[in-house]
């Protein structure tokens, strides 16, 4: 397993190089540059824009620019954000905790809901409760996230006033206090539910189908014959088997949650890296856009690796 | 197999992101659409203001870049926030004329200016404002390591260029006589020297130990900036909010509000947040007006702004070597053709349908708040008149020869106008179609350049590079307090996108900056003559002036807004 992991990690290197080329060329193919939107004849001059372009090396041939970027990257230097005039690493690190907090909350909500609903549905298939849950699930899968976000804000924030509609914190709270953390949680619940709705829906449905399928297996029949209680059969025997495919999803979740956060964060004005990414694209902040795209790509690769490794962990039949 | 899959996935991911990039504006449009459908069923009021006593929540729709010292700030949002923290030595009145504020000035010849500062003006850190602070700001802006966008505001001062090249230790033209007096000498006597002078001092005591190259990333600029405006910085949370508190020693008197919270919200939340009192003040879009007007506790203030929209014509290309426009594109050479295209536009219904009526129809490219604006009575009014348009076309030789309902050019060749417009909110699509329809109605065949609305950055690039596809293009300018229009319409200007070359216009624009124009009435007359020429020649069709719109909760009173934005924050208060 260790050698497999190492092989996979080594295999990522050429892939990452290829990705870096793709990311770089696509970023440069975006029309405009950080200065193209900035034309305000009273505030700036053509000379200034030209000078900045020259200083930042935007006038060099593309291969030269790529080489410079990759060399810096290899040395751990992600460059400087043209918008925030700070190292990209600092900009990302400032926002990252918010996104991670959102992702974890979202995962927790997803798992709790998916397990409860999925187990209920799987145990009582084709009942009214199951059908209601299924309707909810297909709705959750079919409706795009940005619509869910807007609708959620409209009902839960504006109509009912249960949750704040934007931001990650109420201004003026002292960091680290109990109120501070409760306020953060209060702010994160709505975006987290929105973000997790899609996976909740698909996990629930997945778990349900698996439980229904498993309940017709021979081992369940023999357990029943032995007189094992119904709840023990479902909660122990079946659940253990059904959980296997679900656990492996965790790997994919890594990338999906952070990728999905781009839309959710923007609508909820939740200052994480998703919102940063959109803003960076708007202002053509190349260094930030490229670093984040690389980060997302890396998370996807890494998530896949985790998923593959988890297969082996939860299912002893799989050998590497 | 799995590896291949993951590579594909990553690739798709990357492509999707960049695609998302290319359509940044469209996603904004989606949001707006949703917004209106969402609010339609909304007729409740819920006006219990959540804000505390004396606290104003000022919402902005884009995250600030975080540069809270003027001189480093480039984005409009940063400047809006800086208006609360900082103050300027000189301000402009409602006609955009310069008036003394913290400082007053005297000049004999428009070359040497003597400035006198009010005594006892305090910075937030308790230090007194002196001329040294101003000198410091000027030298930062002129410093070789300075990375902000405002060098233009000091380059006219004598010795600034030398200082920037490293040939001098000080900016020679800025002499501090004593704490409250300074003499500034400019390179040459120009009528708009004052308009192009940097008048925001920087707190020398706070910033002088930081190398200029590091200033824009220093916490003294980003997190705890010190100004002498009505509010001082309490807390900055990047991308989320900036919280400010009252500065008791503000030189114009203690501000009435105790706190101002500047909060970033997504534009799709504007109406809801104003409705439930979560925010008190926000600059809004014309699309939101209709919904907001139904709310009892929110008022909308309109202000004639400094922005106008126009339609430009292509006359040639820009010679980047010699920095001048070259007129070598003859398709729109006929003045009658351009006038006909103007008469053909039903601007009133365009404004009503696509801007909720929130724009003023004009016939000059000078914003009406500027003191040099020509009275509309002196200008030809190009009101909607399709018959007149047809007449003019006929006179200029544009006749329908082959009977297909559309005119041919004077040589009998097919005549098709390619019209370009940039992408944005949903209303842009309809507006573009309506303009094209107006022209087709008088017999001018019109095509949409590139077949679709062009992504904004691409559109700007096309204009910069004189792309052949943009023959006739929609544009908008927002200008500053300097009334001089030569930056946009002089034949040597890069931003004269139509590449209009007209000797008389150049002459008038130069005359407006000449020594004779030190006489204000003379200068005004010169610009009026220029506007008359523009109005006759129509190198672009000035369509309308946009109104700046603000949604304000009724309990916020004492609000002053002028063409440059919200002002006089120390007088704002909350009515109990």
The helix fraction of chain B, in percent, is 25-40%
User: How is the CATH topology of the domain at 95-314 in chain A named?
Assistant: MetI-like fold
Strand count of chain A = 0
Low-confidence sequence ranges of chain B = 1-52
Biggest beta sheet attributes of chain A: none
CATH class of the domain at 95-314 in chain A: Mainly Alpha
- Count of β-strands of chain B: 23
Strand content of chain A: under 5%
Task: Provide a concise account of the structure shown.
The complex is a heterodimer of chains A (320) and B (576). With 320 residues, chain A is mainly alpha-helical. Chain A is built from eleven helices and no strands.
Describe what this molecule looks like in 3D.
The complex is a heterodimer of chains A (320) and B (576). Chain A is mainly alpha-helical. Chain A has a domain at 95-314: MetI-like fold, CATH 1.10.3720. Chain A is 75% helix and 0% strand. Chain A has 11 helices and no strands. In chain A, α1 packs antiparallel against α11, α5 crosses α7 (178-214) and α9 runs antiparallel to α11. The radius of gyration of chain A is 24 Å and the shape is globular. The mean pLDDT of chain A is 84. Chain B is α+β, with helices and mostly antiparallel strands. The longest helix of chain B has 21 residues, at 2-22. Chain B is globular, with a radius of gyration of 26 Å. In chain B, 46% of the residues are buried. The chains are: A mainly alpha (320), B alpha+beta (576). At the A-B interface, α1, α2, α6, α9 and α10 of A face α1, α2, β10, α8 and α14 of B. Chain A: One of its GO terms (biological process) is transmembrane transport. Chain A: InterPro entries: BPD_transp_1_N, MetI-like, MetI-like_sf. Chain A: The chain crosses the membrane at residues 9-27, 99-120, 132-156, 188-207, 243-268, 288-314. Chain A: Its main location: membrane. Chain A: It comes from Cerasibacillus terrae.
């Amino acid at each position: 397993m260790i050698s497999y992991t190492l092989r996979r990690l080594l295999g990522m290197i050429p892939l990452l190089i290829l990705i870096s080329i793709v990311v770089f060329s696509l970023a440069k193919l975006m029309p405009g540059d950080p200065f193209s939107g900035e034309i305000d004849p009273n505030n700036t001059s053509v000379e200034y824009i030209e000078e900045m372009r020259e200083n930042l090396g935007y006038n060099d041939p593309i291969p030269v620019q790529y080489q410079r970027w990759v060399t810096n990257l290899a040395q751990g230097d992600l460059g400087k954000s043209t918008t925030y005039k700070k190292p990209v690493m600092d900009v990302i690190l400032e926002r990252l905790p918010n996104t991670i907090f959102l992702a974890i909350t979202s995962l927790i909500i997803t798992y709790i809901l998916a397990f409860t609903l999925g187990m209920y549905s799987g145990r009582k298939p084709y009942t009214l409760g199951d059908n209601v849950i299924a309707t909810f699930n297909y709705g959750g899968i079919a409706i795009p996230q940005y619509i869910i976000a807007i609708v959620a804000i409209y009902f839960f924030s504006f109509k009912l006033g249960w949750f704040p509609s934007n931001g990650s914190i109420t201004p003026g709270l002292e960091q680290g206090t109990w109120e501070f953390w409760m306020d953060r949680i209060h702010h994160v619940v709505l975006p987290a539910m929105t973000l997790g709705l899609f996976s909740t829906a698909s996990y629930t449905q997945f778990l349900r189908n698996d439980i229904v399928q498993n309940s017709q297996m021979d081992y369940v029949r023999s357990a029943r014959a032995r007189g094992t209680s119904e709840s023990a059969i479902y909660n122990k025997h079946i659940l253990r088997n059904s959980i296997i495919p679900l656990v492996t999803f965790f790997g994919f979740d890594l990338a999906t949650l952070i990728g999905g956060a781009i839309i959710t964060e923007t609508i909820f004005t939740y200052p994480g890296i998703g919102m940063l990414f959109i803003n960076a694209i708007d202002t053509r902040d190349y260094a930030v856009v490229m670093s984040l795209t690389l980060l997302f790509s890396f998370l996807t690769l890494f998530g896949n690796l985790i998923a593959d490794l988890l297969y082996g962990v939860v299912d002893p039949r799989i050998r590497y | 197999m799995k590896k291949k899959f993951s590579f594909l996935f990553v690739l798709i991911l990357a492509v999707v992101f960049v695609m998302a990039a290319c359509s940044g504006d469209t996603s904004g449009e989606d949001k707006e659409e949703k917004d209106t459908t969402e609010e339609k069923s909304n007729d409740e009021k819920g006006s219990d203001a959540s804000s505390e006593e004396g606290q104003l929540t000022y919402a902005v729709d884009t995250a600030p870049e975080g540069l809270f010292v003027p001189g480093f700030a480039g984005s409009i949002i940063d400047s809006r926030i800086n208006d609360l923290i900082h103050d300027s030595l000189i301000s402009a009145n409602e006609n955009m004329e310069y008036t003394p504020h913290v400082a007053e000035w005297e000049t004999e010849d428009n070359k040497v200016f003597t400035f006198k500062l009010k005594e006892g003006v305090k910075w937030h850190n308790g230090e007194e404002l002196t001329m040294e602070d101003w000198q410091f700001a000027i030298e930062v802006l002129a410093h070789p390591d300075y990375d902000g966008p405002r060098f233009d505001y000091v380059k006219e001062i004598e010795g600034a260029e030398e200082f920037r090249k490293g040939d001098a230790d000080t900016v020679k033209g800025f002499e501090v006589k004593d704490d409250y007096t300074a003499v500034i000498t400019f390179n040459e006597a120009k009528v708009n020297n004052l308009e192009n002078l940097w008048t925001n001092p920087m707190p020398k005591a706070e910033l002088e130990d930081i190398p200029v190259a590091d200033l824009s990333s220093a916490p003294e600029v980003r997190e705890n900036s010190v100004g002498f405006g009505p509010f001082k910085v309490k807390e900055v949370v990047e991308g989320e909010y900036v919280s400010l508190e009252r500065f008791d020693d503000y030189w114009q008197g203690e501000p009435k509000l105790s706190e101002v919270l500047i909060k970033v919200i997504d534009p799709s939340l504007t109406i809801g947040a104003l409705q439930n009192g979560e925010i008190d003040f926000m600059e809004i879009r014309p699309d939101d007006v209709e919904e907001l007007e139904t709310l009892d506790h929110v008022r909308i203030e309109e202000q004639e702004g400094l922005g106008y929209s126009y339609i430009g014509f292509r006359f040639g290309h820009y010679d980047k070597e010699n920095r001048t426009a070259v007129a070598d594109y003859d398709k729109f050479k006929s003045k009658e053709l351009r006038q006909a295209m103007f008469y053909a536009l039903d601007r009133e219904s365009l404004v009503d349908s696509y801007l909720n009526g929130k724009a003023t129809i004009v016939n000059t490219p000078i914003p009406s708040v500027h003191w040099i604006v020509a009275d509309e009575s002196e200008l030809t009014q190009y009101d909607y008149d399709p018959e007149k348009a047809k007449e003019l076309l006929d006179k200029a030789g544009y006749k329908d020869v082959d009977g297909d309902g559309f005119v041919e050019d004077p040589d009998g060749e097919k005549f098709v106008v390619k019209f370009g417009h940039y992408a944005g909110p949903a209303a842009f699509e309809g507006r573009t179609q309506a303009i094209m329809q107006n022209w087709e109605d008088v017999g001018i065949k019109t095509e949409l350049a590139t077949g679709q609305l062009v992504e904004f950055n691409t559109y700007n690039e096309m204009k910069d590079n004189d792309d052949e596809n943009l023959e006739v293009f929609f544009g908008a300018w927002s200008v500053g307090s300097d009334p001089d229009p030569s930056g946009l319409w002089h034949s040597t200007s890069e931003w004269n996108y139509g590449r209009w070359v007209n000797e008389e216009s150049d002459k008038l624009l130069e005359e407006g900056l000449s020594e004779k124009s030190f006489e204000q009435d003379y200068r005004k007359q010169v610009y009026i003559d220029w506007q008359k020429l523009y109005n006759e020649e129509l190198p672009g069709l000035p369509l309308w002036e946009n109104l700046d719109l603000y949604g304000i909760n009724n309990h916020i009173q004492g609000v002053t807004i002028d063409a440059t934005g919200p002002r006089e924050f120390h007088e704002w208060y909350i009515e109990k």
